[in-house]
Amino acid sequence: MAHLGYLQIDTIYVIERSHHHILYTRIPTYRREHLHQAQSIDKTVFEYWTHALSYVPTESLRFYVRDMRQAGEDWQRRNGWFGTVSNADLRRVLSRIRRQGALTIRDIEDEPVEKDYAWASRKPSKRILELAFYKGLLTISQRAGMLKTYELMTRHFGWDRLPRAATERETLNYLLDRALQSQGIVSVESICHLDAPRKPAMRRLLESRVRRKELIPVQLEGAGESPHWVRPDTLDAIPDPAQEQIHILSPFDPLIIQRKRLRLFFDYEYRFEAYVPKHKRVFGYFCCPILIGDRIVAALDLKTDRSQQTLLVQRWNWIGRGKSRVHRQQVEAALHKFEQFQLCRS
After folding, report:
1. Is the pTM of this model over 0.85?
2. What is the residue-wise DSSP string for 163-199?
3. Which is higher by pLDDT, 210 or 225?
4. How many CA atoms lie within 13 A of 103 on its CB side?
5. pLDDT tens by residue, 113-154
6. What is the mean pLDDT of residues 278-282?
7. What letter does residue 15 receive in the DSSP assignment?
């Protein structure tokens, strides 16, 4: 998790949940209880918003404290979803958790209301819990599937108060170092993914590191005039001569979610079609790119039939130089291992 910087969480359950899938892709011996151990027992990761709801290393929490303080006020004032939540509502729920302990939305009996949108909860208390979460008053102490248990942030971590909020300068350095760690070669776009307001300051920080010879500007073929930067020791790295590995990637994998970067480095245009009408889909509802070594060779539309305990390949699309018999054998072997991971709950 520290290497990736953050790990996106998503509710889609066509195959394994994205957070478990991404960790399995990196760690073949990974088991779901490992993430539970990290979140609920060791408390080395926590959940918060990056570009989406994500797991983040707890050591990085202070870089989100400023967002917690600002987001609560901004979202409550401008967001229609949270606009109906009063300070009295927040005090009531926080007081209950302080007295009775952590709870889930199922522990609260509410008079149901009409949904504002398809994914909304009919329980008004859901808004209160989520706002308290974004304000940093509550944290998610554990998950059972997608059912979240909310606990006081300070009590969960055993703190008297939240860590000191990082300054904006410290946060910029954190974001840059996080990108260099996880991406190797970075651009302003890749560092500030879905965070456009920080781009001007990030450019100035990159320029200052170049002047100190901590970074080297590089041009990539196909990138046009878009500059990239790299640490000097990264250019000296020796390629690993080990046998090419096969990875079945989640659509929410850090390698996939930045589409422009994916196209530049892998010459692959990924399209997520879960929200595309069925008759317009080309690759399938839940299409997973297949990476062999440093090439994406296929894109498979996968689905788990849990009643039959089987992983289904609903559509197999070859990409680029894929299609060889060897590639098929390699991918099928990886699919068998992935099926075992998904269907084995121990």
Report:
1. yes
2. PPPPPHHHHHHHHHHHHHHHHSSB-HHHHTTT-GGGH
3. 210
4. 19
5. 565 544 455 577 888 999 999 999 999 999 998 899 999 999
6. 94
7. S
* E-only strand ranges, the chain: 7-8, 45-49, 53-57, 138-144, 147-152, 216-218, 228-230, 246-248, 287-292, 295-305, 310-318
Distance, in Å, from the CA atom of 319 to the CA atom of 295, rounded to the nearest integer, reads 9
Q: Which residues, in sequence order, are CB contacts of 151 under 8 Å at separation 6+? A: 97, 101, 102, 138, 139, 140, 141
Strand partners, 22: none
**Distances from the Cα of 92 to the Cα of 31, 113, 125, 162, 277, angstroms:** 38, 19, 10, 21, 43
Taking the CA atoms of residue 153, residue 158, residue 160 and residue 163 in that order, the dihedral angle to the nearest 10 degrees is -70
Burial class from Cβ neighbours inside 10 Å (0-12, 13-18, 19+) for residue 39 reads: buried
DSSP-derived pairing of the beta strands 147-152 and 138-144: antiparallel
